[in-house]
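Let's practice the habit of predicting before peeking. Look at the sequence and jot down your guess about where helices and strands might fall. Then scroll down.
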Amino acid sequence: MSQHVLALCGGVGGAKLAAGLAAVLPPERLTIVINTGDDFEHVGLSVSPDIDTVVYTLSGLADEVRGWGVADESWQAIEQLGRLGEPDWFRLGDRDLAMHIARTRRLRAGETLSEITADLAKRLGIGPALVPMSDDPVRTKVETEDGLLDFQRYFVAEQCHPVARAIGFAGAREARPSPGFAAALARKDLGAVIVCPSNPYLSIDPLLSLPGVRQQLAELHVPRVAVSPIVGGQAIKGPTAKLMTELGASVDVVGVARHYQGLIDKLIVDEADRAEAPRVEALGIAVDAAPAIMRSQADRIALAKATLAAAGVAVEP
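Done guessing? Here is the structure:
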């Protein structure tokens, strides 16, 4: 029986590994669950940044240079909105607007985020199941020295400059895992859980905050493998290292392992961090080393294969 793979992800790093997994696994064997704690409303539109990053990356539409949004983008609409006095601190590109308009219209018509995401992904030629973590609103909040900030205000408007003291997820207690997420966790043919190299605090913790999810992951009897977003004491991308420092964690693969302790069996670290293996293994987590910086699709595929091999999941030739 072919083993199904559940990938947990968000952000650019998560999307890149998800693309690698999608390239080496048949679509029916992969479910990608995506963080929605970043979601918010901007100029009247429902924006799901992590979902869109995964959709654009897997469909080949992503701007690989900028690292977010759509390639060959223009900005006339948001610039005109700014002239009209509307908030323009969150840059919505002209091509990107289509996704938010479609999502907003369909949400208002009564469709769920899961239904909308699945249909839009299919229309863009994506095979694996793309699943929001929840159809209920969960919103990441960053408690800083300057006060409590909505995630996008902290991340985009403030460029992560305020010192973080804690991170919370408003609405998580009342939310439910999406039907696709719940079904993937309960699959009898589930062969592995892959935690992508996403920000543990901002992209993976929102998923874990949903009722029952952390416990289910802790109790699974399948290989659970995470890929470190920290290489050589630095974040591959984004504010991971800064957040780890401010929240009292060590900025290294040991800090990543400690954050996931009890939820993963193995951590993939970059070759540069191979010497840290004994410290990670002391936490009860096995270690494999592989090139973890994904500059090309070939890099994504190589890391995906290494991650699946670490999980004991066969890749069909």
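How did you do? The radius of gyration is 19 Å.
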